[in-house]
Write a structure and sequence with these properties.
Layout: H1 13-28, H2 38-44, E1 51-55, H3 61-67, E2 72-76, H4 80-89, E3 96-99, H5 103-107, E4 116-122, H6 130-140, E5 141-151, H7 158-178, H8 207-218, E6 223-226, E7 232-237
Helix pairs in contact: 1-7, 6-8
Length: about 250
């Protein structure tokens, strides 16, 4: 059975033309796809969270919200520009700590595991090796801790591509609802030594692989959902008592 045509990369002139029209509409009514899920993260953050880690913190947009709910918030990002921006934005928040490092480097530090009541990954999991990252997050969590993921996935199945089309059509509608007035093009900012542009990467794993790896690494209880804005969310609470059996089914949704 052949894989369905990827509408994101197809050369079909009608599809490409429709895509350009949608891009222009999106540019006039932009919305922050990642910040859109910050309320979802805060709703599912443990009420008694003391120490929280944000993996791939970028400019630190989520850290401010997390700092209102936890005594200590740590943000890590390997990109020097992002780490610098986050550290600058939160230099007056003593409960927020920024480190320029990868998740693997952070997980290898003595005393890090298990240390966190919650770990968040917003648009960062698809930059990492999926299985390795899930294992590291699992081990960094304290028993009873929660991991909250917002990620991109690669469309593979017919359902994936149908969901992609639905997102492409609803994306500008959400933008118009959030910002009814068209937004003028941003002015060019003067150049700087450290780039403030967010690193971008296409997803390398599919929703099916995410479900498979979550089942293998996290075991039961991972809740995975297709969401708006081309996103997928994953929520998992580490068992309060260690389980010898990590394999098995999970609530993956549709």
């Amino acid at each position: 059975m052949t894989e369905p045509r990827n509408l994101r990369t197809t050369a079909h002139p009608l599809i490409r033309g429709a895509g350009r029209q949608l891009e222009r509409l999106n540019a006039r009514h932009p919305w922050d796809h990642n910040a859109h899920f910050h309320p979802w993260i805060l709703r599912h953050l443990p009420v008694d969270a003391h120490r929280v880690l944000d993996v791939g913190c970028g400019r630190g947009d989520l850290l401010a919200a997390l700092s209102t709910r936890a005594a200590r918030v740590e943000g890590i990002d390997p990109d020097p520009g992002m780490a610098y921006s986050a550290a600058t934005a939160h230099r007056d928040r003593h409960s927020v700590h920024i480190l320029r490092r990868t998740l693997s480097e952070h997980a290898s530090q003595p005393g890090r595991a298990p240390a966190y009541d919650a770990i968040t990954l917003v648009a960062s999991l698809h930059h990492l090796d999926l299985g390795t990252a899930l294992r590291q997050v699992r081990d960094l969590l304290r028993p009873g801790g929660t991991v909250l993921v917002v990620t991109l996935v690669r469309p593979v199945s017919i359902l994936d591509h149908a969901w992609d089309v639905a997102n492409a059509l609803t994306n500008p509608v959400i933008g118009i609802l959030k910002h009814p007035r068209p937004v003028p093009p941003p002015e060019r900012e003067p150049g700087s030594a450290l780039s403030s542009r967010m690193p971008v990467r296409d997803a390398t794993f599919s929703l099916a692989l995410l479900r498979e790896q979550a089942r293998a690494v996290l075991g039961t209880g991972a809740v995975i959902r297709r969401r708006e804005g081309f996103r997928v969310t994953l929520r998992w609470q580490k068992p309060a008592r260690p389980s010898a059996e990590l394999s098995g089914g999970h609530d993956a949704g549709r």
